[in-house]
Amino acid sequence: MTGGIRFVMGGEVVTVAHGDPIETVLQWLRATGRVGTKEGCAEGDCGACTVVIGEADGDAIRYRAVNACIQFLPTLDGKQLITVEDLKGPDGALHPAQRAMVDCHASQCGFCTPGFVMSLFALYRSSELPDRAGLCDTLAGNLCRCTGYQPILEAAERMYDGGRADRFAAAEPKTAALLRSIRRGGTLSVEGAGTRFFAPRDLAALARLAAEYPDAWLLAGGTDIGLWVTKQHRRPKTVIYLGEVAELKRVAEADGVLEIGAGAPYTEVLPMVAGHYPGFGRLIHRLGSVQIRNAGTLGGNVANGSPIGDGMPALIAFGAEIVLQKGGSTRALALEDFYLGYRETALAPGEFVRAVRLDLPRPGARYATWKVSKRFDQDISAVAAGFALDLDGGRVAGFRAAYGGMAAIPKRATHLEQALTGQPWTLEAVTAALPALDRDFQLLTDMRASGAYRARIARNLVLRFYLQSTGQAGAEGVAAHG
Ligand SMILES: Cc1cc2nc3c(=O)[nH]c(=O)nc-3n(C[C@H](O)[C@H](O)[C@H](O)COP(=O)(O)OP(=O)(O)OC[C@H]3O[C@@H](n4cnc5c(N)ncnc54)[C@H](O)[C@@H]3O)c2cc1C
Ligand code: FES
Ligand code: FES
Asked: Which of 396, 404, 413, 430 could form a disulfide with 440 if both were Cys (CB 3.0 to 4.6 A apart)?
């Protein structure tokens, strides 16, 4: 034990010395009397539990909205927690985000309102000044079933009327100093209710712990794992949190390769990925909600190995590899070779994903990726696909296609690839190759889509790729380089 979890709340350092390490932030808040934060779904979908986490960046604070219902309390160690109770000033004055909600009559039953306010607060404190589409995106992780969204969006626009300064901005140097005072040098270790929780701060410590506890849950953003606890009521003996390991959070470009640390949240990965692969950037932008992207990681998506995870089809089609580490040794593996069966991967006991590596786009090559789901926002794919194409004199010199939602694992469509390789890149040749897809997948029918629908979508996405790569349809989803 390292003396409990320490974080800043309400301008003071809070220490939680005892307790259950997989208690969620939401459960803790409500048990300790901060009941403004609500529980709607307990699975990251509705946003009623939205809180804001602040982290020091020099003398400034970076704020991000997260879902308290799937965030475990020890992940707050060394950070600032802001809940709806904190927004009102000592003189009772409402925060501009709250004031705008009142002025626009944007609250009716009120249950979702604290979550909306916290999402608006995080936006207010960010450097962005979004347009209407950006505001909708900010609020896509908050559901309101009674007032409708119009007045809430109006409030989002109105909250800037009085400028962009608030007392949180003024307090940043003081908050940063408090955060520095609780910064931990070594591994956080807490234990309770039959679970031990470690938060190592460097790769060496992580590798040692992973080797010592090969059955531990490796916790990154918790946007999958959180639900194992809140919905499946599972209890781990050991949790190793990856979110404090600085090396895992690096996103860097060197020697023509983009290396994405396995512990970097989507929000931090997005700008660099979108800069090189705009279509993939748009896809990540549709993954979950702001709250989910502020916590969840590509490393977690890849390691979780869900057949309907959104990251893998594009990564496999674009030729990504993953770097795995065990003890002091690392190995690189083509991502497509990582998946052995339904939720079964090549990860050895004690091993962890260190990074995802993606070559920068080849000059002249064309790339695309799409996600097809029932709703645009905050929904899981029925089918996701990624394509990469190299042409030589109008013929297909190289073609890779990978799909999610079509089999027990994310998988390449090798029959389709073979049928197209060497063919002219024409509508006739592409259409003639499509039946090869039937040999690539044994289609499943589930609540998201029927097998027949999936088969149709899989074919249509190839056609869409053809049309867009030849300039016959809009550029949405396609990145052509050269
Ligand atoms: C509301 C909601 C919406 C969602 N929407 C989408 C969506 O649109 N598309 C989509 O694909 N997914 C979606 N997800 C699922 C989830 O957000 C993603 O799979 C996410 O990428 C998981 O990352 P994480 O960091 O949160 O992983 P965690 O939950 O922390 O971990 C997931 C799994 O990966 C393992 N793991 C994590 N990091 C490592 C590592 N470095 N080495 C080894 N193992 C590791 C964990 O042990 C665990 O088995 C959604 C989830 C929620 C709750
Ligand atoms: S309670 Fe619904 S997102 Fe947390
Ligand atoms: S005000 Fe009630 S659901 Fe939004």
From this structure: 413
